[in-house]
């Protein structure tokens, strides 16, 4: 009796995902030409006859979340939670990997997934290698627009611009910015720095940045501010905008250790609204990012890209919301 060959058999034969096989047989541009030829050649050898059906869709079953951030990163744990919840609702198996653990030979194992979510700091060469696998891919919180990939970004530039406007309206004229040295490993940090400098210029204020942050940001932030205070003494600036909440909390601890009170002497604004921002004293004024929604949105975009591989590439900008707490005060 003749055995009927299915797309699953081709996928198993080549060690790739069912979604890759389906897209290759439909000549989808989302799959590389080399992969399309390999799938179509295997289909011929195995005796598979492709019969297109109208409105054909396949379900995504395996998804890889690849992060350049450290596993205990306060921000991405919230994003991952949203991804996990969305995958459970869709019966998608989620695989987690740290980008720094991926070597060249490891890349091929990702071919068994139906799609990739890549978040945080990413090396462009590695992203190009992942793109060459021909799988649907969505970048989360990273701006590599020149690669032509679906991406979801946060309103970084506009938020720090708003932070400077808020502080200036409260009477602050000497406003500093704390971040990693430009260009940083995180494109989001560079965009936040850009928003700060743009607002300071537009308001006719002199910009001043303190940099040197590395991972872990919370620890190095405290060290950087401590070193700066030891070199320069009590700061002339009355407000500090930080690239994220960890940087803000580290700065707050350093100021406290040197007898500088927040917000009486210096107002501080963070970014992300991680859980610690609410419990630290004084509670941190910051920009709230709905990390759970960000993760869920990323899965939705990836599934849509998987089901509609020929649709135009989209970039989504997720707005933040300003949360005023006790770490800032008015001077006028």
TrEMBL record:
SMART domains: HTH_LACI (SM00354). PROSITE patterns: HTH_LACI_2. Keywords: DNA-binding, Transcription, Transcription regulation. This is LacI family transcriptional regulator. InterPro entries: HTH_LacI, LacI/GalR-like_sensor, Lambda_DNA-bd_dom_sf, Peripla_BP_I. The keyword Transcription applies. The gene is malI-2_1. It comes from Dictyobacter alpinus. Residues 5-49 form the HTH lacI-type domain. Gene3D superfamilies: 3.40.50.2300, lambda repressor-like DNA-binding domains. GO terms for molecular function: DNA-binding transcription factor activity; transcription cis-regulatory region binding.
């Amino acid at each position: 009796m003749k055995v009927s060959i299915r797309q699953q058999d081709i996928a198993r034969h080549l060690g790739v995902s069912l979604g890759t096989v389906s897209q290759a047989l439909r000549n989808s541009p989302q799959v590389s030409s080399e992969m399309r030829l390999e799938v179509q050649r295997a289909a011929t050898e195995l005796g598979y006859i492709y019969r297109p059906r109208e409105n054909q869709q396949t379900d995504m079953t395996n998804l890889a979340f690849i992060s350049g951030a450290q596993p205990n990163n306060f921000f991405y744990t919230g994003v991952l939670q949203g991804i996990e919840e969305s995958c459970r609702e869709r019966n998608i198996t989620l695989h987690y990997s740290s980008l720094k653990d991926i070597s060249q030979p490891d890349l091929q194992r990702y071919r068994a997934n139906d799609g990739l979510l890549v978040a945080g700091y990413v090396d462009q060469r590695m992203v190009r290698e992942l793109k060459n696998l021909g799988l649907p891919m969505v970048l989360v919180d990273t701006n590599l627009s020149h690669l032509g990939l679906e991406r979801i970004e946060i309103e970084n530039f506009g938020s720090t611009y708003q932070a400077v406007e808020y502080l200036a309206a409260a009477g602050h004229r000497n406003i500093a910015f704390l971040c990693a040295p430009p260009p940083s490993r995180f494109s989001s940090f560079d965009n936040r720095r850009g928003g700060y400098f743009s607002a300071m210029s537009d308001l006719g204020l002199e910009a001043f940045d303190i940099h040197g942050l590395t991972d872990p940001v919370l620890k190095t932030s405290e060290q950087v501010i401590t070193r700066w205070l030891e070199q320069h003494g009590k700061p002339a600036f009355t407000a500090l905008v930080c690239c994220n909440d960890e940087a803000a909390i580290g700065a707050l601890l350093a100021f406290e250790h040197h007898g500088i009170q927040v917000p009486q002497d210096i107002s501080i604004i963070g970014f992300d609204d991680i859980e610690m921002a609410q419990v630290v004293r004084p509670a941190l004024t910051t920009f709230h990012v709905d990390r759970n929604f960000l993760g869920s949105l990323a899965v939705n975009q990836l599934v849509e890209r998987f089901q509609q591989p020929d649709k135009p590439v989209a970039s989504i900008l997720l707005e933040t919301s300003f949360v005023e707490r006790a770490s800032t005060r008015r001077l006028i």
